[in-house]
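hey
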């Protein structure tokens, strides 16, 4: 195993690197400040002490953790010619990214179920979404993400790496690490496909079913402000789900023969930007509706 890895990043052209540094620095700063502000707002406002905002606060915390795990190292690499990372640092990045990505899918599914319970089962809502149930959803999200991520990290870093140590990405992700191995990686690729496929498809199934039920219920409401308000509380969540799942499915759930690490970097940036802003957009929409 190499004593260090080199992250290829985006470009070696200094003017473009400086521009990208400034762009991502601004995005990162706004993300951390915005999400911290929303977490504080939810916790100090009594009218926001509901399961929906409990999940949104955790989504914001997940967002801050994710961006802090990747962005600072990426910003440093924009301004240096030697973009090294230790094997332990690489493994930690891989673990945290996988954990947060899976936890996000499970958390978005929990949020969709919360909306289903609130809109379709209002009389049973206090029981279906009690404080204990919400806590169990959060624990399950992080526990499941941690377990699957540990499996991927252990299997990846037990492979022999006897060639190049240049990771064709801006952080340590599974596909670019597998590309560096000089051993057969079919088992790793199959496990990646199976585990990611199970989590993403099952959670998407919960989300899709929940929103279908919500749609049927909303359409039965007499045309009034109630229908439009209900749609507005779900629209931003549905948009974030759609964009996030499209990116994850493209990166992890396609045949290995169609992998293109350069295109994966572009999609990963798109996914990261979506993940940076989705909690803020969802919270802004739902908070504004509640405060009206």
């Amino acid at each position: 195993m190499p004593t260090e890895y080199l992250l290829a990043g985006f470009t070696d052209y200094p003017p473009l690197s400086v521009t990208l540094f400034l762009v991502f620095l601004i995005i990162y700063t706004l993300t951390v400040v915005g999400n911290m502000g929303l977490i504080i707002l939810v916790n100090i406002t009594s009218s926001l002490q509901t399961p929906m905002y409990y999940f949104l606060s955790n989504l914001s915390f997940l967002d801050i953790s994710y961006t802090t795990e990747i962005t600072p190292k990426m910003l440093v690499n924009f301004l240096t010619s030697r973009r090294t990372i230790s094997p332990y640092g690489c493994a930690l990045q891989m673990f945290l990214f996988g954990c947060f990505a899976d936890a996000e899918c499970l958390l978005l599914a929990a949020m969709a179920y919360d909306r289903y319970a609130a809109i379709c089962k209002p009389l049973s809502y206090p029981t279906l979404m009690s404080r204990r149930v919400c806590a169990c959803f959060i624990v399950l999200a992080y526990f499941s993400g941690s377990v699957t991520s540990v499996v991927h990290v252990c299997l990846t870093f037990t492979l022999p790496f006897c060639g190049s140590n240049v990771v064709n990405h801006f952080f340590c992700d599974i596909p670019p690490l597998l590309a560096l191995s000089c051993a057969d990686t079919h088992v790793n690729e199959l496990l990646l496909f199976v585990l990611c496929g199970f989590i993403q498809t099952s959670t998407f199934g919960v989300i899709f079913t929940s929103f279908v039920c919500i749609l049927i219920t909303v359409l039965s409401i007499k045309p009034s402000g109630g229908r439009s308000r209900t749609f507005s509380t779900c629209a931003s969540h549905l948009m974030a789900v759609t964009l996030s799942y499209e990116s994850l499915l493209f990166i992890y759930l396609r045949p290995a023969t169609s992998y293109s690490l350069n295109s994966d970097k572009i999609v990963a940036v798109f996914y990261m930007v979506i993940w940076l802003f989705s909690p803020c957009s969802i919270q802004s929409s739902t908070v504004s509706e509640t405060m009206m």
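The longest strand covers residues 5-7. Residues 5-291 form a domain with the Rhopdopsin 7-helix transmembrane proteins fold (CATH 1.20.1070.10).
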